[in-house]
Design goal:
Layout lengths: L1 H12 L26 E7 L10 E5 L2 E6 L3 E7 L2 E6 L4 E6 L4 E9 L6 E7 L1 H5 L6 E2 L10
Parallel strand pairs: 1-7, 4-9
Antiparallel strand pairs: 1-4, 2-3, 2-5, 5-6, 7-8
Length: about 150
């Protein structure tokens, strides 16, 4: 009965010359779609390894220190899409960030002459997720992109 009544309302509401099937239906209210993300993220982390326990891993962007990571630490940096060259004293890496995506950079201490050296590498999400629960978060320097 309700279906017949709904069809009758559509026929009555249809403008002259239009079939009821041609009348657009009212939009259905529902949960709003998530807004598109116009930023991306760079996650920089250092695994918990015995190698280089006393060596810190400073990470810089445009010559300014972004974060210094000890063993088992990570930092999240929200950035506009683009290319970012992260450096330290002995290495550099280019992270390319797309809108809504995350780039992962691992700082690993490698053996060197007399002392270890911090090496930066682009890695995949799985490499970070494997030990993510063990990492402690550090904050990045705020306002680094404005300068």
């Amino acid at each position: 009965m309700l279906a017949v009544l709904a069809l009758l309302v559509q026929v009555v509401a249809a403008p002259d010359g239009m079939d009821a099937a041609m009348v657009p239906e009212a939009p259905v209210e529902g949960p709003a779609a998530p807004a598109p993300s116009y930023t991306g993220k760079i996650i920089i982390y250092r695994p918990s390894s015995i190698m280089g326990a006393a060596i810190a891993c400073p990470v810089r962007y445009k010559g300014r220190e972004l974060v210094e990571l000890g063993r088992g630490k990570y930092a999240e940096w929200e950035v506009p899409p683009g290319q970012y060259i992260l450096t330290n004293k002995t290495a550099s890496v280019q992270a390319i960030v797309q809108p809504g995506e995350t780039a992962y950079v691992r700082c690993q201490i490698k053996t060197g002459f007399m002392t270890g050296r911090a090496d930066l590498q682009i890695v995949d999400r799985e490499s970070f997720a494997e030990h993510q629960a063990d990492f402690e978060r550090k904050e990045v320097v705020v306002g680094l992109l404005e300068k």
